[in-house]
User: Which sequence fits this backbone?
């Protein structure tokens, strides 16, 4: 009998499994955290039917996050009166009720950007952006903040993300009654900057030097990125149940994809070789289906390979990096 792994997401109907995305029966989530078991009917919880597995996956992941945070089932706090809401307060509400509620994979990036916005000191007031009442923020305040990012030489793509976040938060604030008008009006001079598309592939010698300096785990990750074109988060979220070596295919699930779409990627010979090297743990036992493909030596999910990546890049260019602190490196 074939055992399926859906992270607790299932249906209780007689329909064939292949038809679950189209049948009208509700989705259920079973999740256990710190010894407590939770069973939830997604349709009943939100008062409407989930349209398909992609939406159900996103909703299930949001609920798992609330359960882990201890906020699941609590009544939401009453919003503050619009006149007294600060930018920092609106940012927190926006993060919970928009970024997380929409099932955004990148909600943590939104949280980081909102913290940076709130900490910025507005020259005209001498106050941090986060302490300003939302109704007193001007487009010029947003412009000054974005110019500070340029002065720090942050990439155009990063500045565009901040601009998009400010636009999205203020527009959402208007829809919810916190603002009477968005901070950045349609037709404003503040627009996304055009950036050059990143299409250059590593030259053979560059690739050879980089892979020559990469430790085993990073080596596999680099090869996978080169051969699939997947984003880092998509590869770090990949589990062994998503890899079918018989069909030579990898499945990137919508819940882990930035575009929220399922993708099936062919496993080429070089990628197959590095994947097969990592199928067993240090004791020689084959990893289970829920273990992460590009995890640590025992299959746990990696947070970030940034330190190993920076070290390999610097060594590939002939430098000797010395890490003073976890995130600070001296180049010799």
Assistant:
């Amino acid at each position: 009998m074939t055992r399926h792994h859906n992270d607790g997401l299932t249906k209780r109907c007689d329909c064939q499994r292949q038809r679950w995305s189209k049948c009208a029966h509700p989705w259920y989530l079973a999740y256990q955290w710190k010894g407590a078991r939770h069973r939830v009917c997604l349709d009943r919880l939100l008062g409407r039917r989930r349209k398909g597995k992609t939406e159900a996956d996103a909703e299930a992941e949001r609920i798992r996050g609330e359960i882990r945070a201890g906020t699941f089932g609590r009544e939401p706090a009453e919003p503050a009166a619009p006149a007294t809401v600060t930018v920092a307060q609106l940012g927190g509400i926006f993060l919970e009720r928009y970024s997380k509620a929409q099932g955004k994979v990148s909600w943590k990036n939104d949280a980081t950007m909102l913290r940076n916005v709130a900490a910025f000191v507005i020259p005209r007031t001498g106050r941090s952006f986060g302490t300003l009442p939302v109704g007193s923020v001007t487009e010029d305040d947003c412009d000054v903040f974005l110019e500070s990012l340029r002065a720090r030489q942050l990439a155009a793509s990063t500045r565009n993300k901040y601009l998009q976040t400010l636009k999205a938060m203020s527009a959402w604030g208007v829809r919810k009654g916190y603002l009477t008008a968005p901070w950045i009006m349609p037709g404003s001079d503040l627009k996304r900057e055009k950036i050059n598309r990143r299409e250059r592939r590593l030259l053979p010698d560059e690739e050879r030097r980089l892979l020559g300096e990469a430790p085993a785990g990073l080596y596999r990750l680099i090869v996978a990125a080169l051969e699939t074109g997947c984003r880092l988060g998509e590869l770090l979220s990949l589990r062994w149940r998503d890899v079918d070596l018989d069909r030579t295919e990898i499945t990137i699930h919508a819940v882990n994809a930035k575009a929220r779409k399922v993708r099936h990627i062919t496993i080429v010979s070089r990628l197959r070789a590095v994947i097969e090297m990592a199928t067993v743990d240090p004791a020689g036992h084959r990893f289970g289906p829920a273990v992460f493909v590009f995890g640590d030596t025992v299959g746990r999910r990696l947070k970030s390979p940034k330190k190993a990546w920076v070290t390999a890049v610097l060594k590939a260019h002939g430098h000797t990096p010395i890490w003073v602190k976890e995130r600070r490196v001296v180049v010799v």
Notes: The radius of gyration is 23 Å.
